[in-house]
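Mods, move this if it's the wrong board.
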Amino acid sequence: MQNDPQARQEVEWIKLAQNGEQEAFGRLVERYQRRVFSLVFHIVRRQDEVEDLAQEILLKAFRAIRSYNFRASFGAWISRIAVNHCYDYLRRQRSSRVTYYWQLSEDARRVLEAIPQQRERGEPSAEEQMAQKDLVEKLLERAPAEDRIVLSLKEIEDLPVEEIGRILNWSTSKVKVRLHRARKRMLADLRRWRQGG
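Not the wrong board. Structure tokens:
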């Protein structure tokens, strides 16, 4: 990391931001805003809320930057703020949340029935991938907040288990167990839906 010019530049920006330099924090925002927006979208699942929540997270990070201690990467630190903020938001929304219902496209239904054959013949077509993505989106929408968070970090953000542990302040083994349970619950949800029609 010490030989990486980008990492050295980032450390410099962080130190300047910790001293109140807004322009330096702006550079950090440019580097990490895509990650923050993506996390918010995949955890909260409400397009109309993404921008407001992301702005709240970035403001919270700016206010807390003096507490950043360089033990974890800055990306993990800001991701932890994003995840915690989204989790708080979801907890507040839980009382007013309605029960989700299925609205799968016809393509998704066709692909769902074809999953066993897809495994035999290899990689699915672009159409099948789109339908699978639609199905995964619907399953994630129905998932409990904690499952949604850990699955989004692993399956959508493609973060390593170790980094997910740093973001969520969990051990690596806890991340693996929670991922396993979340995937298992999602498969059970899929089976329930298939049996229901």
